[in-house]
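Continuing from the previous page of notes. For each protein in this section, the sequence appears first, followed by its structure tokens. Read the first protein now.
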Amino acid sequence: MLQIIAKQTSKQTMKIMAVAIMVAGVAACNDDDSEAVFVTVPTYGEYGTDTALTLARDYPGRYMGSSTELAAAQYMKQRMTFGDNGDEVILQPFTFVASRGPFADQSITSQNVVVTHEGTENTGRTLYVGAHYDSATQYPNYIELEGLDDNASGSGVLSELVYHFNGVNTADTIKFVAFGSEEGGLQGSKAFVESLSQDEIDNAIGMINLDSLLTGDNMYANAGDNSYDDDGNEIAANVKLREAALRIANELNLGLQVNPAIIPPGETEPYKPLGVGCCSDQESFDSIMPVVAFEATNWSLGPDFDGYTQTDNPDIPGGYSWHNPDVDNEAVLTQALGEERIKQRMSAFAQIVTKLIAEQVQAESIR
């Protein structure tokens, strides 16, 4: 999570044969001919939990431009590569000048990890799915920051999504991206967006973002700033991913909410209206395609009701963990939230987003 410091269908043309996803296994039916396809699925959340815990334990202080960030990128590449399955996995380097923090005015080199899962139908359409893997530098002891919540959790789910779609035929292409240097001002996602051609932008299905999935009291799926027109009317095409996510979560009996916009405009900045999220890599895509941002926080907690207060749990000092090495670590979060929290959240988000992706790219089956 990037912190803003200032406070002021029709039926799809390709049959989706595995859209009823269950933890114990999948039995999916084609409505047109009642042909049943049974797909064995591992327990949701396991692969992502392993990734998240390893990032936190073995790569603390993976701040922008550091050797640890590069090592973490290599680890993410490893976790997002599954043999000779045809998916291209690359590191995408980029350079920027830091605008703040301990590295202000310095030239920083970072990297994204990009997995391209090619569609089989040559539609030209692509769905983008991302999470940042770097950690913040806000606190003096930032080199100790495990960043389990922000954002080993999102990176873990991202790696699991790649796992689930490994070897699965999809009509449309999926690009899974682990972003570097989000905490330096969304630098990885900005660099990625700048690399897109106009044709890629015109044929984008949308972007799914995963950031800070553990500490918060509630799970959210919010759309982007492009959700409303100038008259305040919701634009259906720009909130389609959010609405699909909410429907899927309801089908799976998993609680998923949106920003309720409790506080009126003008009383806090950045103000986000009903159902709109804030301050992570989806914002780099927001002006060019529909987005949905998954997170865990508590938009109903004051005083600003801006999503930065994540929890009313008394064992989380100040109500938030992000960026703070003394709180955003495995020991403190496990003690405060319980040992099962990480597995529960990783499982829930993995289930919702796996099914969301499957629908959007017209997947034949899900691993």
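Done with the first. The second protein uses the same format. Note its length before scrolling.
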Amino acid sequence: MSDRSDHNGAGMKLANGSRVAVVGGGPAGSFFTIFALDLAERTGLELEVDILDPKDFHQAGPAHCNHCGGIVSESLVQILAAEGISIPTTTVHRGIDSYVLHTDAGSVRLETPLQEMRIAAMHRGAGPKGAAVPSGHLGFDGFLQGLAVGKGARLVCDAVAGVEFREGRPELIGRNERYGPYDLVVGAVGLNPHSLKVFENALGRYRRPTAAKAAICEFRLGADSVHRCLGNSMHTFLLNLPHLTCAAVIPKGDYATLVVLGSRVDKTLLQSLLRSPALKALLPDGFVAEEKPACQCLPQLNVQAATHPYADRFVMIGDCGVSKLYK
């Protein structure tokens, strides 16, 4: 490994022909790529941008998903529209017009202004495990990644396992080959522990965000049952159950997505929640707490920002940097 020193900072400014690596092809990485290439075009700067991500967002199932409840807020929808980005109707599985808060004492409904359905419920990947993916259908991450590639980025289907330096510039060590050297490396790896360790080693002072445990379960109820039981509302739960912080049920086409956050998220907590009167009253007749989800994962949620999320030639963005907490 060569010395990472950069000769008193020479060459630290991006110029024509500079190479940028974006590690992680989720929304943070894709948004960075889209807006960086837009800005470069407006300023007459020619950049080469590689997006490195092992996932294939055309495939259903947890291996090709970034493990999230899949709610896009009204504010983000409006920001995207202002930038000329319109989320396709095939990506949005339900427009949300209200929130319903459920507690042990009862429930309250919170309507959006003018009852507009500007909050979007969608899958991050192509869909839950076993789902039939219609031709041309993309989840939110695949849609954004396609926009980034359309701007001129190169998509590399590989995971980054390490970083080395050549004459002060970082090279990325993939499973299949080496990439670079690069003038700038953007970390957009979410809370993936292996990727975070790679960047902690490369940046030196960077320390990953504090995270809380979560569980996401996709239950296939059928479109009619989802519409009848959940409507166009996102249902949130603040219940007096051991280890539960909060939970939510989100309607999405044929599926209801259950998101659970707590100090100890395990099968016992999930069963207790599914048996609770508040949640049982919401689910269709015949649904049993022991029913196996069509798809499930145990992700983490950012609850405290990272420290020192930057270094010479590196910057961390999204959940692995500074992000809205509990989003």
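What the second structure shows: The mean pLDDT is 90. The domain at 18-66+139-209+305-320 is CATH 3.50.50.60 (FAD/NAD(P)-binding domain). We return to this in next week's lecture.
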